[in-house]
From TrEMBL:
Residues 29-167 form the MEKHLA domain. This is MEKHLA domain protein. It comes from Candidatus Accumulibacter adjunctus. InterPro entries: MEKHLA (IPR013978). Residues 1-20 are annotated as: Disordered.
Length: 170
């Protein structure tokens, strides 16, 4: 996001505890991610977004879902199981990771341009780029959707991304 916008956006105090039945598999974060997606893209992220088991279904979805806060150097606060596997990180590792570190150093400028575009336009649904897992494996994301996360009070609190297609790079 542009530097002048980051001052207006403050990081929400997200619960970064590991998803489990006790927190509804991060139900509050899942509702924010799903509701923001529906509001901006006018389509559901999950079939039947109104289901009671939204947190568990998003956490176990067969596609990647990640979200970071709105800090000046955003940190992931959500990564479903598919994202944890792809990025070769546990929940505890990934929710402490500045999102910029999910890209290689040379790809970080490209990533920042993407985030700036999302901040301006609300969402994009045509992103592709190279990312790197904790294992050192590189992969190209194809056809990702990235959108702003907006609280019920209409405050920007971060951004989320979802994609189902990637290819390993050797």
């Amino acid at each position: 996001m542009p530097a002048n916008d980051s001052a207006a956006m403050t990081a929400a105090p997200f619960d970064r505890s590991e998803p489990d039945a006790g927190n509804g598999f991060q139900a509050a974060s899942a509702r924010l991610i799903v509701a923001s997606h529906s509001r901006l893209l006018h389509r559901d992220l999950l079939p039947d977004d109104a289901a009671d088991d939204l947190g568990r279904r998003l956490y176990g979805a067969p596609f990647i879902v990640l979200a970071h806060d709105a800090a000046a150097d955003p940190i992931f606060f959500y990564a479903n199981l598919a994202a944890q596997e792809l990025f070769a990180m546990s929940w505890r590792e990934i929710v402490r990771l500045p999102s910029r570190l999910s890209a290689e150093p040379l790809a970080r400028e490209e990533r920042q341009r993407l985030l700036d575009r999302v901040a301006r336009e609300g969402f994009i649904d045509d992103y592709g780029g190279v990312r790197i897992a904790a294992s050192g494996e590189r992969f190209r994301i194809c056809g990702a959707t990235v959108w702003n996360l907006v609280s019920e009070a209409a405050t920007s609190v971060g951004q989320a991304a979802s994609f189902a297609t990637w290819e390993p790079l050797r």
